[in-house]
Amino acid sequence: MSEATEAMYYARVVSCAVPESTTYDTDITVEVLGSAVGGSADSASQPASGQFTIHGYTAEGAGGPELTIGDEYVFFVAQNDMQMTPAQSVFPVDDETRERPASSANADGSMTLDVPLAQTLGIIEATDGTSPVTDEDVKRLERVTALTQDDTNGEPVVASAWWRAPGVDDENNPTPPQSTAISDLSPWDPGTYVLQAYCYGTGSYDMELTRDENDTQHYAVACSADEVAVTSVTIEVADGDEAAWVQFIPGEMTSAAAGFRVDKA
Length: 265
Prior knowledge:
Residues 91-111 are annotated as: Disordered. The protein is mainly beta and 265 residues long. The chain contains three helices and 16 strands. It has helices at residues 95-99, 115-121, 135-149; strands at residues 7-17, 26-37, 51-56, 72-78, 83-84, 90-93, 158-164, 167-168, 174-175, 183-184, 191-202, 204-211, 215-222, 229-237, 244-250, 255-264. The strands form four sheets. Strands 1, 2, 3, 4, 5 and 6 form a six-stranded antiparallel sheet that branches. Strands 7-16-11-14 form a four-stranded antiparallel sheet. The radius of gyration is 23 Å and the shape is elongated.
């Protein structure tokens, strides 16, 4: 999105016509389904309604996309003259987009939609980012949860699983992914333990492991969109009364199912 962009519209194309102006090649009449006004989704408005005309570029060689009447798109436009900024700033919206917003790219493939904007525009359900929205993400959380609860080799000492992603607040403003609650690991018997952290999606987590109340160590937990990524940490416990806890802080754009389990070695 260029700096000149002042508004984003999720809209259905009603008609296209050749304009009188020579600064753009197509008048695109759309029915508005949702909108976000401002240089970013930070100043999102409530979804709009009705029709208006976007000044765009659809001619061969203009750099813009081919539009189909009746189909839905996201348009980035300059608020003052409703002109597309730039010509490539159009994203098709279909069933795959509703399942995975990042599957929608502009004409030259340089930009894709993200979950917060899709939520703001009303393409997908708006949440606070603590519950998966798409079927794909639900399956990711189910897979991670199954790993944390697997008792094939015995039940874990402690285990937890969750979903985190950027969300929106009550005023429809984007919010970063939320940190997890603090999970107590103690009391535990002296011995060797293995903490396994799982992540299935995009982004990463900072795992903060605190022992003896003031000794905090940080571990990077990478995520994978193709399979569950695993990060293992060995913990030696000499004093069973030693206080210990763990917390996971997601990266700013993390969108992933994650979890952990602690087992005695």
